[in-house]
Amino acid sequence: MSASGNSSFHPLSFILLGIPGLENSHFWMAFLFCAMYVVAVVGNITILHIIRTDPTLHEPMYLFLAMLAVTDLVLSSSTQPKMLAILWFHAHEIEYHACLIQVFFIHAFSSVESGVLMAMALDRYVAICFPLRHSSILTPSVVGKLGAVVMMRGLLWVSPFCFMVSRMPFCPSQIIPQSYCEHMAVLKLVCADTRVNRAYGLFVAFSVVGFDIVVISMSYAMILRTVLGLPAGEARLKAFGTCASHVCVILAFYIPALFTFLTHRFGHRVPRVVHVMFANLYLLVPPMLNPIIYGVRTKQIRDRVIQGCCGKDP
């Protein structure tokens, strides 16, 4: 054990178990996770390349999509390389500060992803409810400021997690029954009163995710009211089509995220293997699905991908 401060002690490292209960399947499961990670990296880099090289895509919807792609790359890359090392090479040990850095990146960029999804919902609301004013309301400057606010919120809200944990004493146990360092999992190894930490975690969750979900819900409620008021059925279908991909992305992110969050705090009867699997999928499935969903549902991106694959000029 090494000292940190006057009365706070932390281990030199932690032991990540991977997926407890499925140790015999770790080697083969790693191939599935590796394939999903490769799809996430290639898909999101492709989205970024298409948006960067096509001036016609420098619009709010695609700029937010680029932010989402960057966030997905950070989220998946903050956990998957270490997870694959655990599953394939039994590299279970993670250095103490590396663990806290992982906690920071996971929670900060989960917050950023939630904020980007909220911004994308606002973009769809303005595009459908105020189509003639869309370009004047969501200017590149406004989009940039929204992105900066979302990023700063994630960084500032989550930074205290690591600071508070780093100043607390840890128990002799150094085992984390997951494949990555998560705030609540690390907090369970602390030998001190963690009520303040838990309360702050709940505050961050409800002030970030709760606020974003409320804004998203209100945006889509107003979108639905506007769409149902359209006279032509074809116009309704087109409007619904523009929102369908975003709704799928929202569900893919929030459902496993909320399940993981609630299970950590209230789901004591949920089998650990189920909890750990959802915790892994929560950080891997959305980054993998987002470029696929937008690549299939968005004509401009789909056409550019087809043109690139066929070797044709746009």
From TrEMBL:
Localisation per UniProt entry: Cell membrane; Membrane
SUPFAM superfamilies: Family A G protein-coupled receptor-like (SSF81321)
PROSITE patterns according to UniProt: G_PROTEIN_RECEP_F1_1, G_PROTEIN_RECEP_F1_2
Highest taxon, organism lineage: Eukaryota
Sequence intervals crossing the membrane: 27-50, 62-80, 100-122, 142-166, 202-227, 239-262, 274-296
Residues annotated as domain G-protein coupled receptors family 1 profile: 43-294
Gene3D superfamilies recorded: Rhodopsin 7-helix transmembrane proteins
Membrane disposition: Multi-pass membrane protein
Keywords for the protein's UniProt record, in alphabetical order: Cell membrane, G-protein coupled receptor, Membrane, Olfaction, Receptor, Sensory transduction, Transducer, Transmembrane, Transmembrane helix
Signal sequence extent: none
PANTHER family from the UniProt entry: OLFACTORY RECEPTOR 52R1, OLFACTORY RECEPTOR 56B1-RELATED
Function summary: Putative odorant or sperm cell receptor.
Similarity-based family: Belongs to the G-protein coupled receptor 1 family.
Protein name: Olfactory receptor
Natural source organism: Pipistrellus nathusii (Nathusius' pipistrelle)
